[in-house]
């Protein structure tokens, strides 16, 4: 049987540990030519923690692990009996392989999570949601997608002032 992608249930919050357990068991069982990849899809996000901007890695599908494997009795048993694995997503007890389109959507979602996203356009009206200029309205002048920053034109005390803020600090009006 050719390799296909399958979905495993695991305990939420234990995905990385289960992934490592699977890889270790596959290697020790010498079936690494039949279990090709073990994937926990993640995306990077920026959050403010204690007033500082921090990049964090979030699991896209909590409680699920994706495994590309040639499914046979031995590989199925090794993966299924790995500590932390609840079971395969299945139909009548048989693991269901994912379609190519479904996996393309998963890979697309992973790639989206790597690219800094700024859903703003130059000339767009915004309001600053946090920081020293909170509550002020402005207009987007320049977008720096690689730094995830935006230069704004604000009207402060009757004068136009340009300020640079994190893209996470602003909202569309």
From TrEMBL:
SUPFAM superfamilies per UniProt: N-utilization substance G protein NusG, N-terminal domain (SSF82679), Translation proteins SH3-like domain (SSF50104)
The NusG-like N-terminal domain, residue ranges: 2-110
Swiss-Prot/TrEMBL keywords: Transcription, Transcription antitermination, Transcription regulation, Transcription termination
TM spans (from-to): none
SMART domains for the chain: NGN
Family that this chain belongs to: Belongs to the NusG family.
Protein name: Transcription termination/antitermination protein NusG
Protein's organism: Psychracetigena formicireducens
Lineage: Bacteria, Bacillati, Candidatus Lithacetigenota, Candidatus Psychracetigena
Primary gene name: nusG
